[in-house]
User: What shape does this take?
Amino acid sequence: MRDAARDPNLPHADPAPYRALVRSPKARHIDVIDQRALPHALVRVKIGDAEAAALAIRRMWIRGAPLIGAVGAYGMALALDREASDGALAQAHAALDATRPTAINLRWALDRVRAKVAPLAPSARADAAWAEADAIAAEDVAINHAIGEHGLALLRGIAQRRPGPIRVMTHCNAGALATCGWGTATAPLFLAQAEGLPLQVWVSETRPRMQGASLTAWELGQRGIPHTLLPDSASGLLMQRGDVDVVFVGADRVARNGDTCNKIGTYDKALAARDNNVPFYVALPSPTIDWSLASGDAIPIETRDTDEVLTVAGRDDYGQTVRVAIAPHGTKAVNYAFDVTPARLVTGLVTERGVTRASKEWLAAMFPERA
Ligand code: MRU
Assistant: This one.
């Protein structure tokens, strides 16, 4: 397995015309989309050493919990290609783990590669790390496809209950760009489209990073799915007006009681959904569950540069990317990247094993070997 998303030998290959992560056969590097350039340009960059992998994660050339995990795993392989001593292994793990704090998939993937290679002789470690990173990437595609199948069943139910397009609201980008294929919250949409179910997707996260606008709108456009961008602050109104059938969001870390950490603004949507009886589902691969956390209270919330709040960047009429200030010089700002939605506001967790309630008992019943 190399190109996890498109390998025709893999079951459930994602037919998308773009892939967030590619490893060519036998290559000792990976290629990723530099997501900072989207939606204006599709730029691919080569990641050829562990430092570049760390930079790509930290600076958000790549992002999205599952993709961060996969790139982290390949970062371990790249580090071990250079030196595979015990010290180098520990250093690579620590350096990559320090890149971003919230998505648990990163730690999960780094731990998994370390556990695989640590018992081996140093000379065998790099090859084993590449193989493990390939396995993580391939599994991610299969997991997301399974999430898609379970989410699709929910969408079919909505289609049976009311005529017209299924109106799905999502937040940020939990699409194929956030993963090795299919996405998490988007996988049900892509499968629904393949099945001919009509969709209308409400797309948000227009502040602070505008990933709904720049990434999800781009992905849905690439796949020909009708969608409408809204300012984050309009979600409540749309739900109140009865214009939303269901909310599907992704997750960066889920505590074992079902509390869900996702891109900032998710909690507000969950509150509005509850007040308006709109089902609110979280799509997550099991590596996003942090079994060590009893609740979401202890999830580290990344704070980012306040420039993301105080300025906006975009492309002008001449094709130049420009960043402009939107607040008085010297204004104080806060920039939390994530929030935690309490389990009680979550209608269900859509995992690769099926849909379950967001509770300690139900999650443990679905993943008894992990609980
Ligand atoms: O800051 P990011 O872009 O790495 O955050 C991840 C996200 O885009 C979302 O929170 C997403 O819903 C979870 S990743 C499938």
In short: The CA atoms of residues 107 and 289 lie 11 Å apart. The chain has a mean pLDDT of 96. The two ends are 30 Å apart (CA to CA). DSSP finds eleven helices and 16 strands in the chain.
